[in-house]
Amino acid sequence: MEGKLMDYQTDYLIIGSGASAMAFVDTMLTETDATFLMVDRRPKVGGHWNDAYPFVRLHQPSSFYGVVSRVLGREKIDETGSNKGFYELATGIEVLHYYHALMEEAFIPSGRVKHLPLCEYKGDGRVVSLMSGESHNVKVNKKLVDATHIEVQIPMTHTPRFEVAEGVACVPPNLLCRLAPEYGHITVLGGGKTGIDSISWLLDNDYPADKITWVVPRDSWFYNRRKWQPGEALFGEALELLASSNEIYAAAESVEDICLGMESAGNWLRLDKNVWPTMFHAALVTEADIVKLNRINNIIRMGRVEAIDEKGMRLTKGEASSLPDTLYIDCTASALSNNYKDFTPVFQQDQINLQPIFVWQPCFSSALIAFIEANIEDEALRQAMTRPAPLTDTVKDYLTSQAHNLMNMHHWQEHPETARFMTNCRLHAFAGRIANIRADDHEKQSQLQRFGQSAPNAVENLFRLAANA
Ligand SMILES: Cc1cc2nc3c(=O)[nH]c(=O)nc-3n(C[C@H](O)[C@H](O)[C@H](O)COP(=O)(O)OP(=O)(O)OC[C@H]3O[C@@H](n4cnc5c(N)ncnc54)[C@H](O)[C@@H]3O)c2cc1C
Predict the structure, then answer these.
(1) InterPro entries, from UniProt (predicted)?
(2) I need a surface site. Which of 73, 74, 370, 466 has the fewest CB within 10 A?
(3) Whether 332 contacts 163, CB under 8 Å
(4) How far is the C-alpha of 446 from the C-alpha of 440, rounded, in Å?
C-alpha cells in the first residue's frame, strides 16, 4: 500500500514535532551528522500552534523564538497598537508557516530527517499510525528524545472543568471572531494570556467595553515586555532587569518581597494595584496593554467557574448572573502540562527529556540541550548544565526554577564552547550583546557586575524562600 508505514532505523527518535523538537533537531543537524525520525500525533509540525486561536501572537519578540538557523519575522519594530515601539510579535499563522517552511526547505532536504505526522508513540520503540492503525517498530541507534514534556493545555484541545447547561453558548476563543457580532454580551473566562488576548481582540475590534465581563479567578504577575527587547536601544533596560532581579532575589525576606521588589523595579506588572496576584505564568505584557485591559470594569473575582446555565455562573466563591444573549469564551486551559512540576533530568541514560533549562525559554533550552548532547561527554557537567527550570504556575514555583536557571547559567558561562554557542545563538535574547559590551561602557559594565556579584546570594536565598514558602 502506498504511504504505508514500515519499520524504521534512526539515530534519534523524537516524540513530538512542536517548538521544542524543532529547536533540538535544528541544532543537532548543525552540530552532528546524525539522523532523526520525528513522530507526532498532529498532522503538521508546530505542535500546539496548529490548534491556536486566530488572533494569537507570541508574547515575546519573534527575534528570539523558533530555531537557531532561521530568523523568525523581519526584526521590525511595531509602529501601532499596544506593542508600539517594541519588537514584533509573530502571529500564530506566521509561527506555523515558519515551522512548515523549515521542515520542507531544510529538514527534509538534509536527507537526515524523516517526519511521521498523525502517528503516536506508544513506548518501547513502537509507533502507531492514527490513520491506518498499523504499528511499527523503530530501531533507535542513539537516543529517544521526549519532546512532549512541555505539551501545553490549550482551549481547543482541553476539557473544561465546569458544567455548561444545554442552550448556553460557551466556545473556545477559536470561534470568538466568528461569533462575537452575533451576541450582545461576552464573558471571557480566565485571567491568563488567552483571556488577555481575547479581551484585547474584542477591544481592538470595537466591541463595547461595557458589554464585556471578565472572570479572573486568580490575578497574575506579568513580565514587563519593555525589559525583554533584543535591540540596542533598550539593552540597558534589559541589563537592569537582570541586575536588579538578582539583587531582589538575594535580599528578599519573603515571596511578597520579591513580587514588590520586581514591581517597583518595573520588571513585573499587574492588572490592579489593589489586588494581590498569585499566578505567575511569565506572560509578557506592555504598560499600554495594562491600560487597555483596565477599560474592563466588570471583572469578577470569585474564584473558578463551576457551572454555567441560562441564568448565570456558579463560581467557587459565589454566583454571578448573566444576560440571556451572552457568549462565554473558554480561556481556562492551564497552558501548563500535567507534569510541569516534574523535575525529571534532561539527560537520563538513553533518553533526553526536552524541557526548559532557561526558565520560560523552551526554544533556547532545546537548542542548548542539543549543543550539549553533541559536544559534551562529561556526564556530571551535562547534569550540572541542565537542571530543569520547569514552567511555573505560581511565584513559589518560580523560585526554584529561577534558582536552577541561575545555576545552569553559571556552568554555561564557565565552559568556553558553550559560552561561544550562546553568544552566537539568536534564541538567547541578550548573550550576544552582553559579550560585546565595550570595556569603556561603564554603566553597562557595572550592571553586568551587579548581576554576577549578586547571583550566588540570589540562588541561596531563592532556595531558602522556596523551602519556607
Ligand atoms: C498561546 C500561547 C502563546 C505562547 N507564546 C510563547 C512565547 O511567546 N514564547 C515562548 O517561549 N513560549 C510561548 N508559549 C509557550 C509554548 O508552549 C512553547 O513556546 C512551545 O510552543 C511549546 O512547544 P513544545 O514542542 O514543547 O510543545 P507542543 O507544542 O505541545 O508540542 C508537543 C507535541 O507532541 C505531540 N505528542 C505528544 N505526545 C505524543 C505521542 N505519544 N506521540 C506522538 N506525538 C505526541 C503533540 O501532538 C504535540 O504536537 C506560548 C504558549 C501558548 C499556549
Answers:
(1) FAD/NAD-bd_sf (IPR036188)
(2) 74
(3) no
(4) 11
For 244-271, how does the pLDDT look when each residue is reduced to its tens digit (9 = 90+)?
Answer: 999 999 999 999 999 999 999 999 999 9
On whether the CB atoms of residues 337 and 150 are closer than 8 A, the answer is yes
Q: Are 344 and 404 in contact (CB under 8 A)?
A: no
Atom number in ligand 1 closest to CA 49 = 29
- How far, in Å, from the CA of 149 to the mean position of ligand 1? 9
Q: Which three cell numbers mark 465?
A: 524562600
Distance (angstroms) between ligand 1 centre and the Cα of 52 equals 11
Q: Take atom 14 of ligand 1 and give the residue whose Cα is closest.
A: 58
**Residue 198: Cβ within 10 Å count:** 27
42 lines ligand 1 (CB under 6 A): yes
At 1, the pLDDT band (50, 70, 90 cuts) reads very low
Q: How far is the CA of 98 from the centre of ligand 1 (A)?
A: 15
Write the CB contacts of 23 (distance below 8 Å, at least 6 apart in sequence). 66, 67, 68, 362, 363, 364, 365, 366, 367, 370, 427
At 286-333, the pLDDT tens digits run 999 999 999 999 999 999 999 999 999 999 999 999 998 999 999 999
Closest atom of ligand 1 to 333 CA is: 53
- C-alpha distances (whole Å) from 400 to each of 281, 359, 428 are 14, 10, 21
Of residues 46 and 157, the one with the higher pLDDT is 46
Q: Rounded to whole angstroms, what are the CA distances from 138 to 170, 310, 373?
A: 42, 52, 21
Residue-level pLDDT at 151: 80
Which ranges of 129-279 does DSSP label H, i.e. alpha helix?
176-179, 193-204, 235-251, 255-264
Q: Which atom of ligand 1 is nearest to 57's Cα? A: 3
Q: 212 pLDDT exceeds 90?
A: yes
Atom 51 of ligand 1: nearest residue by CA position: 335
What the chain holds in terms of domains, given with CATH numbers, is: 8-152+337-407 (3.40.50.720), 163-221+270-330 (3.50.50.60), 231-267+437-469 (no CATH)
Question: Tell me, what's the pLDDT at 337?
Answer: 72
Q: What is the pLDDT of residues 65-107, one digit of tens each?
A: 999 999 999 989 999 999 999 999 999 999 999 999 999 999 9
pLDDT number for residue 3: 45
How much distance in Å is there from the Cα of 157 to the middle of ligand 1?
12
